[in-house]
Amino acid sequence: MDSSNRLNDRPRVLITGASSGIGAQLAKDYLEDGWQVFGCGRNRERLVAIKGINPLIFDIGVRDAVQSAGKQLKKLLGENTLDLIILNAGTCEYIKAPLQFDDQLFERVIHTNLVAVGYCLNAFLPFLSHDGRLALMSSSSIYLALPRAEAYGSSKAAINYLAATLDASFAGHKESEHIRVSVICPGFVDTPLTEKNDFPMPMRVDVHTASKEIRLGLAKGKREIHFPKRFTCLLKLLSILPAGVWRKITLAMAPENKNKDAEL
Predict the structure, then answer these.
(1) What pairing do the DSSP bridges indicate for beta strands 12-15 and 224-227?
(2) From CA 15, how far away is CA 56, in angstroms rounded?
(3) Which phi and psi (to 5°) does residue 155 adopt?
(4) What is the pLDDT of residues 58-113, one digit of tens each?
(5) Residue 115: which CATH number?
(6) 186: exposed, middle or buried (C-beta count within 10 Å: 0-12, 13-18, 19+)?
(7) Would residue 249 count as lying in a domain?
(8) What pLDDT is stored for residue 244 in this prediction?
(9) Number of structural domains, the chain?
(10) Angstrom distances, CA of residue 204 to CA of 23, 88, 262
């Protein structure tokens, strides 16, 4: 068998946000596992530094750029299709003063974490095989309403709904009935994005652990991948508390109250 045929036999994955953080580690690990990786990002230097990757350089927030990337992907794939799409790219900003609601921050986060996902779905889904898998990056923040996360939490809650509706919609059409959808809900992961956080991040894991959990979950066909389990299961447990109880807990957690005694 010649080298071109061997290349065609390799499974193929497209990963957005592959220039840093979880996306970069996923790209490296899938390459190590023998996959053909199409890595998407804005930073050309970081992408091409990942040996063996097929780089697609574009901004997911610009529709025309995403459409151009789709055309480039078509040329790279030839007659082949993708086995897996991981829409991982995203951002996080926090609203510090709810009474001075930062609508522009809200718009930026929603655009990057949700609207841009729609751009990518339009451009890349046509290249997913009829028995492939689509994975959307959400967050464990969707399990519990957290202070200052109005924009980020809303965008990720929408991703979960989007994943569920896509899964149902795929099942209703013959040409897509075998496509499966996974949603990924990590806790805190040590990445350049979380380095900006100004609050404690309990049970934080590194990108190697995150990549391992995600790849294992996808290989097992899990619809919801969440980790670390001790943290995410705790959030799920807290989410069933009455709203009034949880509100008192969040008041105690607020920065202005952290040194005060709170009545729980």
Answers:
(1) unpaired
(2) 10
(3) -65, -40
(4) 999 999 999 999 999 999 999 999 999 999 999 999 999 989 999 999 999 999 99
(5) 3.40.50.720
(6) buried
(7) no
(8) 84
(9) 1
(10) 17, 18, 26
